[in-house]
Here is the input.
Amino acid sequence: MRDGSTYKPVSDVADRLRSDVADKYLADVAARYPAAKRTVDKSIQTYLYLGAIKTIMPNAKFLIVQRDPRDNLLSIYRNLFQAGTHRYAYDFESLADHYLAFRNMVSFWKQQMPDDIYIADYDALVRDPEDKARALIAACGLEWQDQCLEFHKSTGAVKTLSLAQVRQPIYKSSQKAWQRYGNGVMPLPKVLENEVSMSLNGINERIAKTCGQFGRDVADVQLIAVSKVQPNVRVADVLAQGHRLYGENKVQEAAGKWPDFRDEFADVNVHLIGPLQTNKARQAMELFDAIHSVDRPKLASTLARLAQEIGACPDLFVQVNTGEEPQKAGVLPSDADAFVAEARALDLPVKGLMCIPPVDEEPALHFALLRKIAEHNGLAGLSMGMSSDFETAIQLGATHIRVGSAIFGERDYG
Here is the structure.
């Protein structure tokens, strides 16, 4: 077995050799499909060679379809592959290992060449085929043709396991197919439990489950995906999955990120959930759809003045320091009623309250206190609950929960 010490980076291979490999591949493709103007290579193991392929063929584009890993694994498991191939496909633990390797490899190369890897969300594609198909075609640098939506009418030969699927229009029956089997038939490997529970789909499922347990309408709970300090490629991935509500901590970071995203995703909403300095209030009012950190009279007065000048104001949440921590922003609980009244007297659109409980105290006590203050002031909005405690927050009436790394991955503050 080789130890890898004699291997060389693809970039160190002579240009001529790289060109020869590309020429041989393209010649093989041309021999197999002489009439084809373009070729899509859907080899299952392609993800292992993304960097090498890009080095050898600089014009290559990569399309990745992401779906719920449980559906993904089930789809592979149900197929019967050619003898001796894809042996991992018949054991869920092996399948999970390959799935995670795939996700890690794609995530790495997406950061290295963001413009050449397009990630499509399976559920979003099924929900809105034309819109997502148009985006996919554009990502390939091709012109749209209406026949793209009529692929099932093609009479060309199909020699893959997708034969039955491609002969019919896009259908929804494969979404959440794993639920028809349950964990008894399809046990979820331990290594994937965190992947599922800590993901956009997983968080939404947990929200729905909690709402069902406590008689809440899931439509009354909004998930704020906290995108602070996250690379744009990760944010773009979540946007591609259809999520449209995000939270940022700093005005400057949001200003460098969201105007460009809004050019592509006009229906996106961005909330400021971090502290706001008065000298950045005007920029914040232009950037954000809501501000969750109104915490002092001076800021309230500044926002009121700017609202009169601009003629509009984002929705506002008053931050309450429920733990009365000296290092933390927010009005004290004993001052909250008076501050809400003052903000209302300034004609500010106060929609609710926000709190961040002390890390070493039971969050339920603080959520209950915030709800009591909100009810006393006739406020419906409760911005409370994060990754570790949002289910408790929902139980106690949260209308906005804030989840970050569980959706995007761990932040790199370096």
Observations:
- Residues 190 and 297 are 50 Å apart (CA to CA).
- The longest strand covers residues 62-66.
